[in-house]
Amino acid sequence: MGKIIAVHSYKGGTGKTLLSVNLAATFAKNGKKVAIFDLDFRAPSLFAILKAENSEVWFNDYLNSTAEVSNILVDLSSKISGGGKFFAGLANPATEAIRDMSSKDRKWEMRALGRLLALKESLITEQGFDYLIFDTSPGLQYSSINAIVAADFVVVATTGDRSDVDGTKRMLKELYNLFEKKTGLVLNKVLDASATSKKSEIAAKIKTSYQVPMLGIVPCFCEILRAEGNLIFVQDKPDHPFTKILAEMARKIADNEVN
Amino acid sequence: MIKDQAIIKKPLNILEKIEESLERLNDKMEVIIEIQKTSGDNQKSAPGLPEASLDVMTLLSMPDHLRKTAMAICRCTKATAEEIAEQTSRARAVESAYLNQLVIMGYLKKTRKGRKAYFYVDRETTG
């Protein structure tokens, strides 16, 4: 049975989109059928990273009930080697669309939750998708919480930044716990994390501090910054340590090892 | 022999009808109990008022026991108290009371099909 994974964080700039894209690409490289969705309707970015600017129908249209999911999915399988399937549901970056999505009422948000929950039936059960990955917007807002409620597993991206740590702790306690969600923490942009001793030290510290399972530690890689979001890293740099870390995360999620 | 069967069938039918009436009565009583519990200063819980939306912020602000039921019903299109009880691992009667409470609060709709009561989130009504 397929899984819905939401990638979320308290603050912006924690690497949600980078993790979402590369986690989705890792699953696809492993031969899985994957769809990634951009739920950051206020600052869409997936279209640029996946170079799919010319879309005419968007994920917005699916949530607005003006299009079906099969019409809005963009097939990007050719970008990934390994025989898997890689689809994307993109958020519309037009200013008009952003404004429209920012002014939705509670009733619309309730229907949007219904549309997200329905993806389980339409894509996972009927079309045999293995993973649906929701790249969310940071903090507590409707689109992110909708994604979390609809998800089977939440990947929480965080950095060592003081302003991020406290907020993330609060979110774990007051959001994911209330919805009884399984979560896995990814500590991103870690300095000097290459030494094995340092890694286990960080992992132990995180476990005591956040009280949630650790999914992975990602060191700060200059190559990722240099790429400026122009590539699907795990596809283009198969031997890079980042690719190996992502492969391990994907394995843990697939094997239900995050408990 | 056929005559015997007919004789047995009649009281069975009557018993089924009695059971059906009792279940309806039970549902009505649960609703009355819930109305009494929540009436008074909380006008929102009075029946007949416009429906409230069961969105995620509402879910977050709910008491834990109701959130569990509401989350379970959100995942189904339509469900009986028994089906919700299977998901939440709580007793059917408990879920029935919570579901009826959510109906009174305007978050859920209830419909009957034969003897069974189905609960659902009305996502189609506009407004």
Task: Name some characteristics of this structure.
heterodimer; A: 259 residues; Rossmann fold; eight-stranded mixed beta sheet; B: 127 residues; mainly alpha; Arc Repressor Mutant, subunit A; two-stranded antiparallel ribbon; elongated
SSE order and pairing:
The complex is a heterodimer of chains A (259) and B (127).
Chain A: E1 3-8, H1 16-29, E2 33-38, H2 46-49, H3 59-63, H4 69-72, E3 74-75, E4 85-89, H5 95-102, H6 106-125, E5 131-135, H7 142-150, E6 153-158, H8 162-176, E7 182-190, H9 196-210, E8 214-219, H10 222-227, H11 233-236, H12 241-254
Parallel strand pairs in A: 1-5, 1-6, 2-4, 2-5, 6-7, 7-8
Antiparallel strand pairs in A: 3-4
Helix pairs in contact in A: 1-12, 6-7
Chain B: H1 2-38, H2 56-61, H3 64-74, H4 81-88, H5 92-104, E1 109-113, E2 116-120
Antiparallel strand pairs in B: 1-2
Helix pairs in contact in B: 1-5, 3-4, 3-5, 4-5
Count the domains of chain A. Answer: 1
Q: Could you tell me the number of beta strands of chain B? A: 2
**In this structure, how is the largest beta sheet of chain A organized?**
8 strands, mixed
Reading off the top of the CATH hierarchy, the class of chain B is best stated as Mainly Alpha
Distance between the termini of chain B: 61 Å
CATH fold descriptor of chain B = Arc Repressor Mutant, subunit A
Describe the structure.
The complex is a heterodimer of chains A (259) and B (127). By secondary structure, chain A is an alpha/beta fold. Chain A has a single domain (3-254), classed as P-loop containing nucleotide triphosphate hydrolases (Rossmann fold, 3-Layer(aba) Sandwich), CATH 3.40.50.300. Chain A is built from twelve helices and eight strands. Chain A has helices at residues 16-29, 46-49, 59-63, 69-72, 95-102, 106-125, 142-150, 162-176, 196-210, 222-227, 233-236, 241-254; strands at residues 3-8, 33-38, 74-75, 85-89, 131-135, 153-158, 182-190, 214-219. Chain A has an eight-stranded mixed beta sheet with strand order 3-4-2-5-1-6-7-8, sandwiched between helices. In chain A, helix 8 links the parallel strand 6 and strand 7 (182-190). In chain A, helix 1 (16-29) packs across helix 12 and helix 6 (106-125) runs parallel beside helix 7 (142-150). The longest helix of chain A has 20 residues, at 106-125. Chain A is globular and about 55 Å long. Chain B is mainly alpha-helical and 127 residues long. Chain B has a single domain (2-120), classed as Arc Repressor Mutant, subunit A, CATH 1.10.10. Helix content of chain B is 59%, strand content 8%. Chain B has helices at 2-38, 56-61, 64-74, 81-88, 92-104; strands at residues 109-113, 116-120. In chain B, helix 1 crosses helix 5 (92-104). Classes of the chains: A alpha/beta (259), B mainly alpha (127). Chain A binds chain B through residues 106-107, 109-111, 113-114, 117, 142, 145-146, 149, 175, 178-180, and chain B through 53-60, 64, 67-68, 71, 74-75, 121, 123, 126-127.
